[in-house]
Structure formats: structure tokens, C-alpha cells
Amino acid sequence: MDRRLNSNDEPVRFRIDATRCDGQGVCVLVAPELFALDRYGLGLVIPGSEKLADHPEVRARGLEADALCPRNAIREDPVPPARVTPVPSSSLGAVGAQRPRLLLDRPESVARWQERGGWAEHDPSALIDLVERAGIRGQGGAAFPTAEKWRRLAGATRPIVLVNGAEREPGTVKDRYLISSRPGLVLDGIRLASRAIGAAEAVIAVDEDSTAEHDALSAAITEAAGHGLLDGLEIRVHKVPARYVAGEETALINVLNGGPALPRLRPPFPSDAGVSGRPTLVQNVETLAQVALAAALGVEEFRSVGVPDAPGTGLFSVGRFGGSCRVTERPYGYSLCALLAETGLLDGVRAVLVGGYAGGLVGLDALDVPLAPAALAAAGASLGTKSVQVIDRCPVGVAAQIVGYFGAESAGQCPPCSRGLPDMAALLRDLEAGVRGGEAAAELERFMGTLSGRGVCRLPDGAARVTLSLLAGFRDEVEAHIVAGCPSPGTGAFPAADD
After folding, report:
1. How many whole angstroms separate alpha carbon 106 and alpha carbon 430?
2. Which of 206, 316, 448, 481 could cross-link with 464 by S-S, CB 3.0 to 4.6 Å?
3. In the beta sheet, which residues pair with residue 360?
4. Could you tell me the pTM of the whole model?
5. Are residue 328 and residue 262 in the same domain, yes or no?
6. Where are the alpha helices (DSSP H) in 321-436?
7. Residue from 416, 391, 405 nearest 470 by CA
């Protein structure tokens, strides 16, 4: 529970170590405004009580409860300022906020993007070099170097471009924004990619229930063709099943080839044999938008913000886990804490899911982590789909929900997914409920540690990353669950343990 007594005070947090609490309830008798007992008789900090703790008398009672607790389970700790204070944009240097690049306040027509500098002609032989110098990587989650992908297709016979706009992961909406609000930018990126590899045909895959996105793209294609901007390039929009696994590149190719939305083994790789057996370049929507942006701005301007391992800005889907989210734009390397503060999401945060469902859980002690690949990897997360979801409930339960989602969305082709993930979700639910205790945690760690790179589409990798980030970064909470199950089921009020 974070709060300030006045503008000159350091923020503090009242905390209860569930592994020390013996359930006598002294804290509840002394400071009922701040503390309560859960169904197991363990003490917890009441959600929202930080507003009451602004009063000196209430704080004094909290400190008295601390003094009287027979097991010394209560703490009032200073919170490092970086956890609660936004980093001023002026102090961020190369990662500082700039004028919007990708995020606009109203939808943009094809003609308007042309007025902004888009649709310029570029030497096809120089485009791959431009993309490489700009440092653009895939924005769909894998972050593979875009120029390297293009080089594999350069000189291929009758290559085709496949644009992945199938965005089904909960809490990720950036591609939907680009398709519906900046279709001209996306089409310009498709044009440039097609020119670079010598493709005369491109297909944009969207979810079958994404009617607004389908209509926006169709209208933009008609507008661009009417202005002669797509000469020599045919672009069509194809609806695909609204399933998470259908967004995997080989599953998309199977659908376009008339088959089911099932991933397939590699090789052959899409660059060798993809749509209709032709060499296929598969790119995420935002990746191609970044290409068009870099071509319009120039490499130097494009790289003037961000960090060396992630130049430029990116679109982040930001919200609370299980709720709605909105798209915002920030330079790579921006502070996670600053992003949350500026979007009003710091209140009640217990953990943050960074990178989407296949990302990782970041704890309160790492909220100042830069939103950049190396820094996030060190914190057990990743940029992934650039979804940032604040968790204000039990992180063990959240991990169970995510692993269960992956199990339900599995194509059912590989045992690690079809059998392993539902079993691991059940183990996480057992851990949340205090069933099987340490045995569940140990089995989770063993199984998840074996998942990397397994399965046809590597879907289990995401489930493993989330679970291992929970077990590594939230060990005190896991241990408390082993002792007595979730101290605050359904309330999101897990009492933080000692660091």
C-alpha cells in the first residue's frame, strides 16, 4: 500500500509478511481501517486503504499494530522514488518523447499520408540497406531482423508478401489501430517490402470478425490504386479464423492454401515455400508501418529517438489485466514506471505483465526497467507484442489464467501444448488454492524449464516464460501460497512479503 503523508514525505508501504503472520489478529484490533483477516485467518492490507492512511492518526495506529504484532509480520518500508515518480521526458535524452510518429488523434487517409511524406519512390536495391541501417525488427513478438528476412527473398522467383494482421492475443490492439486508423501507412510499407524483394502480389490476413479493419483496408486499397500508388502490385485482404493459433505464420499460410489453421513443421520455411508454394515474406502490420516511417523520415531522423538495440518509437497496448486497453506511443528505452504513471495505471499495481501473454511478469522492484529488449530480458520479460498489462490481483492466479488460455488455444498437435499446458494450468490453480503446495511449485519449475523450443509453433515458450518469471520474481508470494493457499482470493490484495 503506497501513499504520501504530505508533499515533503517519502512514500511508504504498509506490508504484511504472510509467511510470518500467525493469525492472532492484533493488527485488525488496533488498526481496522488498514488491516483485515482473510478466509485462512492471515492478515492482509485492505485494498484502497492508502487513502485513509493519509491521516496521521491512522498511520500511527498502523505503526502501533506493527509494534504489537507478536511475529513482527508488519512493515512500513520506504519505496524507491523510481517506483512511483514518473521520469521527466526532458531527462530521457535519446529516448525522450517526440512528436507523434505512429499514433495520430484522428484516422488518416492515403492522401494525407502522402502529404506527410509517404509514398515516395525509393531505389529497390537500396531499400534492404535502409531497413538494416534503421535497425527495424519484427513487431509481432519474435523481433527477428527485418532486413535479414528480406535478403532471404531477394532474387526469389515469384515471391509474395503476407501481412499478418490477425491479432487475437488479449490485451494487444496496436495492429488493429494501424489498420483502421493509418491504412495508408501500412499499405506504403507493403509497397516498399514488395519492391525490395520483387513481389507483384501481397495478401493481408485479418481476423474474420474484424469487419471495421477489413473495410478500412479495402477502402484504402481502392484509394491508393486510384491515385496510381500501387501500380504493378496487387493487394488483397483475406479473412482468417478468429483463433490465437491462426496468427502463427505457417498456420496463416495453411489457411490461405485452403487448409485448416494449423501450424506446420519447418523446413520448408515460408521464405522457401509458403502461399501457393511460392517464396513468402511474412511480416507483422506494425513492422511494415515502421518501414514506411523510416523511409519517409530517413534513417538518421528515425534513429534520433530510442536506444541502440531498439531505435525509434513503438505502439504499446496499455491497460489493466482482463480489462480494456488503449494504444499509446513511446520511444524504446522509455521507463515502464513513467509509462504507467502517465497513463494513470500506477494505483494498486502488484505486478506488470510486459510483452503480452508470451511476455513475463515484472515486480514492483523492477518498475523502472527500460522498455528495451536487453533490459526486459534481464527482468524476465520481453517486448513481445508490446502489451503492458497492470495486475492488481494475485499473480499466481493470473499465471494460471494465462497458461490455461494457451492450453485452450493450442492446435492440439503436440503433447507439450495439448496435454502439458492444461496440466500446468491445473497445477497453478492448485498452488493458488494451497493444494499440493511445494510439490506443485517444484513440478511447475521442472516442466516449464523443458519447454523452450518445443512444439511445432513454439506456443509453449510463452507459457513457460510467464510461469518462470512468476517463480523467480515472486518467490515470497509463491512460498506464502504453499503455506496456506492464496491469502486473498478474488480481492487482488495479496499482502506483500519481506524483500
Report:
1. 47
2. 448
3. 354
4. 0.79
5. no
6. 336-342, 373-378, 395-409, 415, 421-433
7. 391
Q: Cβ(142)–Cβ(358) under 8 Å?
A: no
Give residue-wise pLDDT tens across range 280-330. 999 999 999 999 999 999 999 999 999 999 999 999 999 999 999 999 999
Same domain, 400 and 476: yes
Q: Pseudo-torsion of CA 370, 372, 377, 381, nearest 10°?
A: 80
Domain annotation covers residue 90: no
Residues 447 and 360 in one domain: no
Q: Is residue 366 part of a domain?
A: yes
CATH number at 33 reads 3.30.70.20
Do residues 386 and 317 touch, judged by C-beta distance below 8 A?
Answer: yes
Between vectors from CA 389 to CA 387 and to CA 390, what angle results, nearest 5°? 155
User: In total, how many domains does the chain have?
Assistant: 4
Full domain range(s) for residue 446: 395-484
C-alpha grid cell, residue 140 = 509481432
Q: Name residue, grid cell 494505483.
A: 347
Residue 118 is which amino acid?
A: G
Same domain, 368 and 443: no
Query: What CATH number did the domain enclosing 453 receive?
Result: 1.20.1440.230
Give CB contacts under 8 A, 24+ apart, made by 375-380.
375/333, 379/354, 379/473, 380/465, 380/468, 380/469, 380/472, 380/473
Of 478, 475, 448, residue with least CA distance to 464:
448
46-54: long-range pairs with CB below 8 Å, 24+? 46/493, 47/348, 47/491, 47/492, 47/493, 48/348, 49/1, 50/1, 50/2, 50/3, 51/3, 53/1, 53/3, 53/14, 54/3, 54/4, 54/5
Residue 101 lies in a domain: no
**Residue that is last in its domain, among 249, 275, 302:** 302
Facing residues of 280 across strands? Answer: 160
Residue spans of alpha helices (H) in 211-272: 211-226, 249-256
Pair (140, 256) in one structural domain = yes
Are the C-beta atoms of residues 199 and 160 closer than 8 Å to each other? yes
Q: What is the pLDDT of residues 148-204, one digit of tens each?
A: 999 999 999 999 999 999 998 999 999 999 999 999 999 999 999 999 999 999 999
- The DSSP annotation for 170-199 comes to TT--HHHHHHHH-HHHHHHHHHHHHHHHT-
Other beta carbons within 10 angstroms of residue 95's beta carbon come to: 24
Neighbours of 212 (CB within 10 A): 12
- For residue 51, tell me if it sits in a domain: yes
Q: What is the CA radius of gyration of the chain?
A: 25
Kindly state whether residues 409 and 386 are assigned to the same domain: no
- Residue 1 in this model has a pLDDT that exceeds 70: no
Residues 128 and 271 in one domain: yes
Cell numbers of 197, please? 524483394
CA atoms of 190 and 195, how far apart (whole Å): 9
Asked if 361 and 391 touch (Cβ cutoff 8 Å), the reply is yes
Rounded distance between C-alpha atoms, residue 478 and residue 394, angstroms? 10
The answer on 150 and 119 residing in a single domain is yes
